[in-house]
Write a structure and sequence with these properties.
The complex is a heterodimer of chains A (110) and B (115). With 110 residues, chain A is mainly β. In chain A, 0% of the residues lie in helices and 59% in strands. In chain A, a hairpin with a 3-residue loop joins strand 7 and strand 8 (70-75).
């Protein structure tokens, strides 16, 4: 059974204070790891897909990396508008369904 | 603009009543999904459909029903058999099965509260 664990559950940063969000996963034959951003009361918004260890993708202040056991979402010099819940999900080779983690709630103070 | 429309955004239900949540997409996606989101839990899959007139149970299908009569529409009925229906419900779609199923586009969600 595919499993995804995200840590920490919540993270509070000062504006400009860089940090990383962790997503640890167990999956049989990784077909893809995905990061989504979710604002309160809204649906998740797709950020990145990573397919193989060593892969990295960037978008503005966000950078996602992947190893064989975990993924990190690095946030460089965050701004208050980066405050949201960040969801990680994996798709294994056994099925076409995504397995989601519980999410990390990020709060960035001005 | 293409996207997914869920309605209503907020819904209140009395115990013993069935309610139907609407989900319409104009992205020309083949696959559609319903997820349930509860505080402190990850998204859990209720039902999914990869083609019209076909759908499969997800991890928590008990007490729910769906139909897929049109490519654009995938309504979810929360029946009185669902023991704890108060939750945030998310509809999603993707291009299709296989590798194309990876990137989900989500609607804005429907919040159901049982009174």
């Amino acid at each position: 059974e595919d499993q995804v664990t995200q840590s920490p559950e919540a993270l509070r940063l000062q504006e400009g204070e860089s940090s990383s969000l962790n997503c640890s996963y167990t999956v049989s034959g990784l077909r893809g790891l995905f990061w989504y951003r979710q604002d309160p009361g809204k649906g998740p918004e797709f950020l990145f897909t990573l397919y193989s260890a060593g892969e990295e993708k960037e978008k503005e202040r966000l950078k996602a990396t992947l190893t064989k056991k975990e993924s990190f979402l690095h946030i460089t010099a965050p701004k208050p508008e980066d405050s949201a819940t960040y969801l990680c999900a994996v798709r294994g080779g056994a099925n076409s369904k995504l397995t989601f983690g519980k999410g990390i709630t990020l709060s960035v103070r001005p | 603009d293409g996207g997914i429309t869920q309605s209503p955004k907020y819904l209140f239900r009395k115990e013993g009543q069935n309610v139907t949540l609407s989900c319409e997409q104009n992205l020309n996606h083949d696959a559609m999904y319903w997820y349930r989101q509860d505080p402190g839990q990850g998204l859990r899959l209720i039902y999914y459909s990869q083609i019209v007139n076909d759908f499969q149970k997800g991890d928590i299908a008990e007490g729910y029903s769906v139909s897929r009569e049109k490519k654009e529409s995938f309504p979810l009925t929360v029946t009185s058999a669902q023991k704890n229906p108060t939750a945030f419900y998310l509809c999603a779609s993707s291009i299709g099965g296989g590798s194309g199923a990876n990137v989900l586009t989500f609607g804005a969600g429907s919040r159901l509260t049982v009174l």
